[in-house]
C-alpha cells in the first residue's frame, strides 16, 4: 500500500463517519439507548465502541494509552472526540509511511504491526460495525446513511 492509498482509505472512512454523525446525533436518547441487538446492544453502545477503538489505535500509534470517551452523555458527546481524533490521525499518518512499525501493548500482550496493517484493521473494524449500525437503525424503523466505501470513491475530484 502506498502512502496515497493509505490516506485515501482513511479519508473514505472519515467521510463515512461524517455522513453518519447527523443521523447518530439526531437520534432521541431513547432511540440511541434502545436495546435492539448486535455485537453491542444499542446504537449508543456500538458508536461508543467504534469511537473508543479508533481512539485506542491512535493512542497506540502515539505510544500512549487511550482514555475512551464516556457514553453516559450520549452520542452527541462522542462526536467532538472523534473529530479531534480524525485531525490528529490525519497529521500522524502524513508523517509515517505505511511500512512504519508500531509496537504496542494490548489485552493479549505486546505486538508490532505496520501502519498499513493498523489502517486496514481500523477501517475494516469501523466498516463492520457501521453495518451493524445500519441494521440497528432499520430495527428502529429508521433509514440509515450509506455504509459503502464506493460512494466516497465515486465522488468527483
UniProtKB/TrEMBL annotation:
A divalent metal cation binds at residues 49, 125, 129. The keyword Nucleotide-binding does not apply. It comes from the Bacteria. Gene3D superfamilies: dinb family like domain (1.20.120.450). The keyword Mitochondrion does not apply. Keywords: Metal-binding. PANTHER family: DAMAGE-INDUCIBLE PROTEIN DINB, SLR1116 PROTEIN. Belongs to the DinB family. This is DinB family protein. It comes from Meiothermus granaticius NBRC 107808.
Amino acid at each position: 500500500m502506498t502512502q496515497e492509498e493509505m490516506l485515501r482509505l482513511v479519508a473514505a472512512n472519515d467521510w463515512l463517519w461524517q455522513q453518519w454523525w447527523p443521523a447518530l446525533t439526531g437520534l432521541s436518547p431513547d432511540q440511541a439507548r434502545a436495546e435492539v441487538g448486535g455485537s453491542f446492544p444499542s446504537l449508543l453502545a456500538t458508536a461508543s465502541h467504534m469511537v473508543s477503538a479508533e481512539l485506542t489505535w491512535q493512542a497506540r500509534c502515539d505510544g500512549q494509552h487511550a482514555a475512551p470517551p464516556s457514553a453516559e452523555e450520549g452520542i452527541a458527546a462522542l462526536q467532538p472526540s472523534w473529530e479531534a481524533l480524525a485531525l490528529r490521525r490525519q497529521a500522524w499518518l502524513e508523517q509515517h509511511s505505511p511500512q512504519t512499525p508500531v509496537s504496542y501493548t494490548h489485552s493479549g500482550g505486546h505486538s508490532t504491526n505496520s501502519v498499513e496493517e493498523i489502517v486496514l484493521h481500523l477501517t475494516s473494524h469501523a466498516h463492520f460495525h457501521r453495518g451493524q449500525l445500519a441494521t440497528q437503525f432499520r430495527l428502529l424503523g429508521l433509514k440509515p446513511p450509506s455504509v459503502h466505501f464506493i460512494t466516497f470513491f465515486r465522488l468527483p475530484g
